[in-house]
Amino acid sequence: MKTLILYASNHGTTAKICRYIAEKIENSTIDIVNIKSNKPLNLNLYDRIIIGASIHAGSVQRSISNFLKTNQDLLLTKPLALFLCGMNKPEYEQQFEKVFPEILRKHAISNKVVGGEFLLEEMNMIEKAIIKKITGIKETISEIDFTKVDELIEEIKK
Ligand SMILES: Cc1cc2nc3c(=O)[nH]c(=O)nc-3n(C[C@H](O)[C@H](O)[C@H](O)COP(=O)(O)O)c2cc1C
Predict the structure, then answer these.
(1) What is the per-residue pLDDT across 29-71, written as a single tens digit (0 to 9) for each?
(2) 123 CB less than 6 Å from ligand 1?
(3) Are 85 and 122 in contact (CB under 8 A)?
(4) Cβ count within 10 A of residue 49
(5) 11-16, long-range: CB within 8 Å, 24+ apart, which pairs?
(6) Which of 14, 17, 34, 56 to mutate to test ligand 1, by most ligand atoms within 8 A of the CB atom?
(7) pTM for the whole thing?
(8) At 27, is the pLDDT very low, low, confident or very high (cuts 50, 70, 90)?
(9) How far, in Å, are 8, 30, 96, 152 from residue 34 at the CA level?
(10) Does the beta carbon of 99 lie inside 6 Å of ligand 1?
């Protein structure tokens, strides 16, 4: 059993969640791949695929939307789990639906919005200024919803 965990991550939170998932999945060879690494990727090699990404200013990383478009047909042939990081709770469902096309959401064994983090030390000056102004936060906060992450792990393991 071979599992691909493919992700995009601006400040490292989605990457961290991917590593957490990889540690908890048993009986599988796992490749964790940053979509930005431009590693040649043969999706046919994998028995199941997990895709994670994050929302910034209302949008997901373009690399992820392009990947989903290009590989949709193949993704529909594999057990699939999709997750999204974000910090704007009231918009979670809407954002998830915007990022992942309906056909993939319906096919996926697991669809989760898993919260996220504001890592001030990882932000550039503009990001920091925007986030501080919008949210009023003064220090880094972590609101990863590990209950949702654990649910995804259980659902993909079945
Ligand atoms: C500049 C900036 C803009 C963001 N915009 C949104 C947003 O529009 N909606 C949302 O739910 N979360 C937003 N977030 C929160 C991120 O989704 C959150 O920080 C997430 O954990 C980032 O994951 P990553 O480090 O893997 O990219 C934003 C964060 C930053 C720094």
Answers:
(1) 999 999 999 888 999 999 999 999 999 999 999 999 999 999 9
(2) yes
(3) no
(4) 22
(5) 11/117, 11/119, 11/122, 11/123, 12/119, 12/122, 13/54, 13/85, 13/116, 13/117, 13/119, 13/144, 14/52, 14/53, 14/54, 14/85, 16/144
(6) 56
(7) 0.97
(8) confident
(9) 6, 13, 20, 19
(10) no
Return the HEC string of 5-70. Answer: EEECCCCCHHHHHHHHHHHHCCCCEEEEEEHHHCCCCCHHHCCEEEEEEEEECCEECHHHHHHHHH
Please, what are the domains in the chain? 2-116+145-157 (3.40.50.360)
**Amino acid identity for residue 26 in this structure:** E
Six-digit token string for 18: 């991917």
Among 28, 38, 24, CA closest to 67: 38
- Ligand 1 in contact with 86 (CB < 6 A)? yes
**Count of helix runs (H) and strand runs (E) in the chain:** 6, 8
Q: How confident is the model at residue 20 (pLDDT cuts 50, 70, 90)?
A: very high
C-beta 145 within 6 A of ligand 1 = no
